[in-house]
Every structure is written in structure tokens, then in C-alpha cells.
Amino acid sequence: MIQNNRSAEIAAALSARLLEMSAGTKLPGVRELAAEFRASPATISAALAELTALGKVRAEPGRGTFALGRQRVPEPDFAWQSQALGPVRVDPDRASRLGNYGSPHLIPLSWGYLAPELQPGPELHRIGARAAKSPRTWAMTPPAGSVELRRVLAAEYRADPSEVLVVAGGQQGLVYAMRTLAEPGSTVITESPSYPGAILAAQSAGLRIAAVPSDDHGILVDQLAAELERTRARVIYLQPSYANPTGVVLSAERRRAVVALAVAHGAFIIEDDWARQLSIDEPAPAPLFASAPDGHVVSVMTLSKPISPGLRLGAIIARGPAGERLRAARVADDLCVAPVLQETALELLTSGAWQRHLKRVRSELAVRRDVLVEAVTSSLPAARIPMIPRGGLHLWLRLPHGTDTREVVTAAHAAGVLVGDGRHFYADEPPAPYVRLSFGAAAEPELREGVRRLASLQQR
């Protein structure tokens, strides 16, 4: 129930008074209570409504409000729901961790977005305020998104604007893509380890997940081919550039090979292109979408990662009947992304501030990555960094054999550090103990302090 602070205070005071009243005792009238508490009748009414909702008083029109006394409220029985709902689809443990920023008192050593000081805050404030004054901001856009924004987003993918579908962030794009491109009960193949949000999207769509290992050059093509033969899967989920959590970039040779496999098996590749704008040491490779003219690649991109988590805006780029189905599915769920977000994104992307922002972010991410790598190397000598990422936001860390990552994550949280449990990045059992650390959400002193606290836990 929505209430203001004053009505909540009055409700609390009356609640304490009710403990001394027997059932059926009549409370003072609204005017009398208003005078006693020096509050408006509306505030008193709100407080009484709160007590009524809590089962502490009973309002009788024309007679007044009466105490119900210390009645035992029966515990609700939800046992029937388990049978009605059927088997759990989405792993609640994994879901609770995804996007769990914790609190301001935690060092965000695992978080998939930019720190506030790395976001283009002043530009967003200025552009957002101007966008809010535009008449078209408060009119609906086409369900696929504003024509102007789609034209801008299409350019990097060498796509036609009509092939772009604007969605409320990359996660929504993954859910739409999984649900639309595969039938419930069918199989989606993912690289392993993989982004937990993609695993959740597949579970939400009722899909089975087949995991194929990856190495420093991306998914293992021969094992992918074998899994396509075994499962007859028609959807492959990949992060070709700066994969979360490993930072791996799919090699040029393997890019050609996975597209060829998709063509041979009549399959779709869902290209999660979340980190394209977050390259550090070199420009990101061209999107897979550009090399698949027949529509075997469906790309999902996001602006929430390189700009701000509050800018829930991304896009699905898809060709042919798949694109038409995705656009139809969009209408079934929501008629459009908020136009004010689209207008804000469009103005930022077409201004000089966009390239200046990216240049600054890439430079800062390079510094923070190197600080985190140095801190881990010097303070956690028993841990191993399989690969130093050349883009993205994350550092994948292998811990000594026998380490229980649950215990590590729990102890780290108690010590004020947010760490990603490697278990959540595997659809099946993890082959070794891993944790994910991130360098985009914490400042340099926080990175060093976070690793120092982790090291102190290992010494106990």
C-alpha cells in the first residue's frame, strides 16, 4: 500500500495502542485523531486503511472503526501452487544473482555495467531533459522502434532499418529470440561457460540446454558439429566478442566455421553482441550478422552496457521470416519501448559526445583492467588468470582445485565484496572452481581493496 511517512508514523502509533485494547473497542473518530496527531483527515484515513489491511482494525461504515484484538491470523497455505505450477523452469539461485548489485556498502567486484563515473551522466541529463520536451516523445513509436533510431542501429550491422527491432535492453532481446526461434522442449546449444542471463532466457522459454566447451579462441567447432548432429538443435547461442565471463573473442577461422555449420544444419545463431562498444586493445571484429545474408544469424545488441544500466534499450537484428516473427512477438508483449528512451538514445548516438564517451570509457577500462590483473597476480598467487581480456568488463579467475566457490562468494559478501560465483556460468557442473571479477563497476582503489579482502579470506 502506498503511504506517506506521516501516515506510516500514525499507523505505527495506533498499532502500539491497539495492543492494550480488547476486541470490539471503538477507536476515536477521524476528526479527533486528526486533532490529536495534528494531521489532516486524509492522513488519518490512510493510517486507518493501513491498519485495516493488516487485520488490526475493522471499519464499519456509519459506526466507526473497531479494534479486532489479538486474533491469531492463520498462516497461508501455498502447497497447492506447487502442483498447479508444475516443474520449476528458471533456476532461482542463478536468477537471484543476475543483476544483484548488492548495496552501496559492497565493493562491486562483479557487476556487468559501468560505474556511475564512467557513464555519460551529464550528457544523459542534458539530452534527456531536451527529449522530454519534444512532442513526439509522448506519442507512440512504431512497435519496432522509431525509424530514425533503427537507421542508426542498423548501420554497424550492415542491415536494413526494417530488420531492426528495438527492445527494452539486451536481456529482453535474448528472451524474445530464444522464445521465438525455438519450440518449447527443443534444444539450444551454448558455449560453456556462458552468460547466466542467456541460460535463464533459455529456461524461461522451456528449452533444453546443451553446452559445448570453449577455449581461448571460442567455442570448439568440432564439438559443436557433433552436438548439432546429436541434438538436432536449431539454435546456437554465442558471444563472439569479449564473451562474458571469459573475455574470449571467437577467432576469424571459427567465425567462418560456425556460420557454415549453421547453414549446413539449417540453424540460427543468436549473436549476443553486448560488448561491441567496450573493446579495449583493438576494435571489435565485424558482427557475425554481416557474414550471414540468408538470415542464419540473429544479433542482439544493447546500449545499457556501454551507456547506463538505467537506459534499458537494445535491439534484435534479424532477416527474413524470423525477423517478422520477432516483430510479431514484440507486439504480443509490449507495444513499444518508451519513446523518451529512444529519443535520448538517438540524440546521444548521433552527437559528438558519443565518440568522446567511448574513447574515455575504453581508456579507463584499460587502466582498471590492468589494475585488477596486477592486484590478483600479486595478492592471489594461488589463483590463475586463464586469459587477459582485450575488451568487455570481466576477468575470469580459476581458483585452486578443491575450492568451494559458494563458500568464497559467501565469505566475500560478508567481507563487503561482491564476487561472481563461477557455478552460475555453467549449464551443467563446472569443470573447476572459478569466480568472475569485473573491472568496469569499481574504481581503482576499490579494485585493489576488494582483492585485498579476498586475499585475507584465503589466509584464514
Report on the architecture of this protein:
Keywords: DNA-binding, Pyridoxal phosphate, Transcription, Transcription regulation. GO terms for molecular function: DNA binding; DNA-binding transcription factor activity; pyridoxal phosphate binding. There is one protein chain. Helix content is 42%, strand content 14%. With 460 residues, the protein is an alpha/beta fold. It folds into three domains: 5-67, Arc Repressor Mutant, subunit A; 95-116 and 354-458, Aspartate Aminotransferase, domain 1 (Alpha-Beta Complex), CATH 3.90.1150; 120-351, Type I PLP-dependent aspartate aminotransferase-like (Major domain) (Aspartate Aminotransferase, domain 2). An eight-stranded mixed beta sheet has the order 4-11-10-9-8-5-6-7, sandwiched between helices. The protein has a three-stranded antiparallel beta sheet with strand order 12-15-14, covered by helices on one side. Helix 1 packs across helix 3 and helix 6 (121-132) crosses helix 13. The two termini are 46 Å apart. The mean pLDDT is 91.
